[in-house]
Amino acid sequence: MRIVVPFAAEMPKTRLKPVFTAAERSTLARAMLADVLRAIVEAGYESTILSTADLDLAALELPGEVETSTSVAVDDRPLTEAINVRLPGGEESEADGDDGEETEAVAVVMADLALATPAALEALFAADADVAVAPGRAGGTNALVVRDPAFRCDYHGTSYLDHREIAREIGATLETVDSFRLATDIDEPEDLVEVLVHGRETDRAPSRLHALGFDLAEREGRVVAVRDETADVE
Amino acid sequence: MRIVVPFAAEMPKTRLKPVFTAAERSTLARAMLADVLRAIVEAGYESTILSTADLDLAALELPGEVETSTSVAVDDRPLTEAINVRLPGGEESEADGDDGEETEAVAVVMADLALATPAALEALFAADADVAVAPGRAGGTNALVVRDPAFRCDYHGTSYLDHREIAREIGATLETVDSFRLATDIDEPEDLVEVLVHGRETDRAPSRLHALGFDLAEREGRVVAVRDETADVE
After folding, report:
1. Which are the contacts of A5, defined by CB distance < 8 A and separation ≥ 6?
2. Considering the entire predicted model, what is its pTM?
3. Per-residue pLDDT tens digits of chain B, which is 234 residues long
4. Do B120 and A157 touch (CB under 8 A)?
5. Is A138 within 8 Å of B198 when comparing Cβ atoms?
């Protein structure tokens, strides 16, 4: 199985503008990407970063084993299009084996799944349906495994419901993978609390957030991530 | 194992005030409670509603098998206190068997887990750690299984982290159960989209929302639940 990790290299995480500078957003996005790539390697797979622009892999400073298991493909087409050509049956898909008799499965894992663990990914990758989806909040698709060459994705709108419908139309089986870790993409300031609560100790994103002055606090009976503006940031 | 379902009978779902009248909040809260109780029965367990005030079980109009598997206990103490006396080792706990040699495990499942399915609950109940937690967003504890009589809960603040710490202090093993369905409590208007996307067809909460004029819509590139104020509501 090939794993594709889409990454917006030039304008990452625009919804985090209220709390981060552009440079900080880039730092956090790359930290989350590195964490996701490491979780994929620990789950036993290699991955391809599907980047919207040139990306210097060395600059990510990945651990050795992660770097050797990761490649970069640059594609500035819209997300849906760039993924579809790489799905089984897509024009840039790779047949599995010399005789091309079987199409290799393709997984698509978003780069901002900061809580992803090898175990959560393994549960997704092990699903044997023609299509497996780990939904995100608000009807999104955070991770996807496609084994049916007739399936095409559509990341616009309620992609989770659309992917169910597309699978139904082509007669493919679909399994929904129930994972809080894979359902949690870090898009908005209120998502940062999840990184601080559930991020792995060895992950980069939590330590980057701490270095930027973020910590947990209680506000009006709710737990949020707040920034100490007096912190000695990097 | 005994299942306790805390329910705020008098002032349910105050954070949903921006979009519902008091009567509508009560209707939705009871629909979600009924769905949770049914999922518990389908998972093979009986439950006790731990209600903050008198609750007319018949008025919930539960399916026959669900009603006969559900009882009500009224306790107006704060949530943490009302639960702690019912945990294994608590003063109102029930010993398992006549000789009282073994304490029965207790599970606590919140009444607003509108996406709960029998499968998600079974995965939680099957965890064999001394304490199993299904975290909610923002450090909450949405569902909990306690097998160690020394464990006491604390639902204030980042209860997920507190429960980890409490387990560590008493030397109890703790397992975190990774479930999007159990992580999704319906607290705020932005949570309603999850009920519309992931609610089971046979559940009440999605049909109540539809009857109140709610449906999915796309707003500024995001999927949300919106209300048609012209709808012919109940």
Report:
1. A33, A36, A37, A40, A47, A48, A49, A50, A108, A109, A110, A111
2. 0.94
3. 999 999 999 887 889 999 999 999 999 999 999 999 999 999 999 999 999 999 999 999 999 999 999 999 999 999 999 999 999 999 888 654 455 556 899 999 999 999 999 999 999 999 999 999 999 999 999 999 999 999 999 998 889 999 999 999 999 999 999 999 999 999 999 999 999 999 999 999 999 999 999 999 988 778 889 998 776 555
4. no
5. no
